[in-house]
Amino acid sequence: MHGNPIFEPARDLVRRLHCPHCWQGFAPSDALFVSEDPRLLGDPVAGADEPLRFLPSRFDLTGAAIDPEGARCTRLACPRCRQEFPRAMLEVPASIVSVVGAPGAGKSHLLASAAWSLRREGVRLGIEMTDAEPRLNARLHEAENLLFASADPQRSVRLAKTETAGGGGYRAVRLDGRDETVPVPFIFAVRSHGLQRAERLLVLYDNAGEHFMPGADDAMRPVTRHLGRSEGVVFVLDPTQDPGFRRAAGLPEGNAVTSRQDLVLAEMASRIRHHRGRRTDEACDVPLVIAMAKADLWAKAAGVSLHEEPYEGGGISAARLRAAHQACMALAQRGSPEFVAALRAAFGRVLMVPCSALGAAGEMDGVRPSQIEPHWAAAPFVAAFEWLPGGRLEGLQP
Ligand SMILES: Nc1nc2c(ncn2[C@@H]2O[C@H](COP(=O)(O)OP(=O)(O)OP(=O)(O)O)[C@@H](O)[C@H]2O)c(=O)[nH]1
Ligand SMILES: [Mg+2]
Ligand SMILES: [Zn+2]
Questions:
Q1: Staple partner for 183: which of 45, 223, 237, 377, CB 3.0–4.6 Å?
Q2: Residues that place a CB less than 5 A from ion ligand 3
Q3: Is the pTM of the predicted complex or chain greater than 0.90?
Q4: Fold exhibited by the domain 94-386
């Protein structure tokens, strides 16, 4: 790759990066390019419908690679799984924040709502966020558009459940003669407002809740293996799926879906330890944000106020977060002592953040965009990001 302006020292390159699909580590100069000539369709690893990936030997003056048919190529792919990743990953360090939670907990709605608010309210939230490569976040844009940019806000919309395979969320690749499934991440360029912190890339994953159930992550589908590398975790807890929480928050018992979210949390902790080679009795040192979702349904009864957003003076407020954390923790202790016990057994640093992606419960046919009014939707992600080293909440001990 000598002589290629993309890799010259004039550009400040990271020394090594990790593929956001398969987490293979590699040097920038080992990145493959995605061919552009339509005749080069078909890649032995990425699949028959994908353009060939190649290690270039020819470049033009701008640093674009020239594919074997002579076309200019600028899209990059991992040398192992051959999935495309944003060019910014060559230059800016990336932090993974894993999003975890039981099926139906509200992960996808929360991500869409948080992204929408982060894009528009950077000044107030203290974080500027943009797509690292818009094309690669298309699945998230669809969700945001459905909920927040609908042409007819009176017509009910429904965000589909995340698939467990296929769809836009996973890619099938052929590695060393066997089929493997890798997840598709959402990648953002993020900068803290007013702080001299360099830009970072934030890598998020929206798995189907089923993948966090015990036994659901295997060698052929390593779709939650980001847990081995993440610097922060947002665990989406749905209090309405827990009979004890429902009682503690004064919700009717009804025939609502229930799930053992303490077991999902314990399984997550065991994967974090396993992938990092830790002992089973060691506390996980990754900071954990518990996003207490669907707060529109339970916050009032639980004495948690979401009236004021947790931002002050152009950034997240540690004081407001702490107050909300204490109220949520009190509710959890009353409603689900088994969840609190699972939490204490596995994590040293935990922050509970109430939030509502929609601000309204939908009806049978979905939710009307005109009724959507998110509360604190971005807060769990802003908190997780600001809790990373160098962030506004770095020393936070809730
Ligand atoms: N009341 C209320 N309901 C919500 C909110 N957010 C999501 N929901 C509902 O919760 C259900 C599940 O939401 P999803 O975002 O699809 O949940 P998920 O965690 O992504 O689920 P999987 O993809 O199956 O893992 C949907 O029916 C939503 O309408 C909220 O803020 N308030
Ligand atoms: Mg989902
Ligand atoms: Zn890869």
A1: 223
A2: 19, 21-22, 24, 78, 80-81
A3: yes
A4: Rossmann fold (3.40.50)
